[in-house]
Amino acid sequence: MDSLVDFSANPSFPEGIPTHPLEIINYKLLLANVKPEVERLWHACKTLGFNLSSSVSVESTDGLPDSLSEHGIQPEEVFEIGSQSLRNLPFEEKLKFLHDANAGQSFGYKPPGANLTNASGGVDTVEWWNIAKDDVRSYPEVTYRTYATPINDAMDKLKGFVDKSESVSRTLLKILNDKLCLPEGFLESCHAPTELSMSEVTLIRNPGVEEAPTFSEEQLAIGAHTDFGSISLLHNILGGLQVLPPSTKEWIYIKPLDGHIVCNLGDALAVFSGGILRSNLHRVIPQPGPQIHWDRWTLVYFFRPHGTCEMRALVESEDVKEAVRESTNPFPHGISAIEWFQRRTKYFHKDENISAAESWKQAKGTEHGEF
């Protein structure tokens, strides 16, 4: 069944399943620079790297909006684009826009089973579209590539989603810049809006099944990973997202909450901050309980540094410099954000010419205990 056909009929997240609590951050209070709320965000970013943003609003000329409905991010409209481009489009048509994973390019269509989920050769069960921010903003001019008709027809809606997601991401970035004691605007300069980046909108569908399978590590929807960029803004309807909390060996669910965005920090901020900020391991498994029968739809905005930005610890901050001195992990230098992204994208892809174990190793990010 399709959760987008009748959203109100979606089964609730099952009772009795342990879930990991996330900090619920009021975005309106962040915009107003309310110190206790800023400190709660800062704590979440240093511990798990995940938090939930509620009352997500974008500042306007009229002042601060009062409710969620005024934030300008309308995931329902973009979910519908996913329905048209994933559920309704013939598979053969989608394959015309296949992403070039061997070149480390993510933009385009990724079919189920194309990506590794572990070092043993397990593959994913999801399909998705990755739509480049720069293609959305330059449309009808092509920056990276073309897309299927349902996506092209919805570029105005995608542009609105990208613009509001960028605004939220840059608000968070400014707060983290100040808390890291970096020079004013320094993190912003690593995400120059006028430069090309690998930032993208991702629409993901994990199909429901009639009978719930016995779960094994070979049946992951998306394998364990840290995100490749700086900030991920996640909208999802059904369960399946799990995190591995620090210093534990037990995966635990994140329960979706209506009207909230899951905000996750990626590799870039972990590296830029010298490890002060945390990019946490997470994965997606089949939907829990009765939700398994329903398609799981996910919408993510991946906010990333501009492509030529160097991935390095920003020792212009004394706090970051001290964190690097105390760290036992070497930090990268001399590699650009686009090179980091392309390496991880290429080796997450299942390639018959390289062993799964070697490919999984080459795809490593900050989750491997070393940079």
From TrEMBL:
Residues 194-305 form the Fe2OG dioxygenase domain. GO terms for molecular function: metal ion binding; oxidoreductase activity. Keywords: Iron, Metal-binding, Oxidoreductase. InterPro entries: IPNS-like_FE2OG_OXY (IPR044861), IPNS-like_sf (IPR027443), Iron_ascorbate_oxido_reductase (IPR050231), Oxoglu/Fe-dep_dioxygenase_dom (IPR005123). Belongs to the iron/ascorbate-dependent oxidoreductase family. This is Clavaminate synthase-like protein. It comes from Lentinula raphanica.
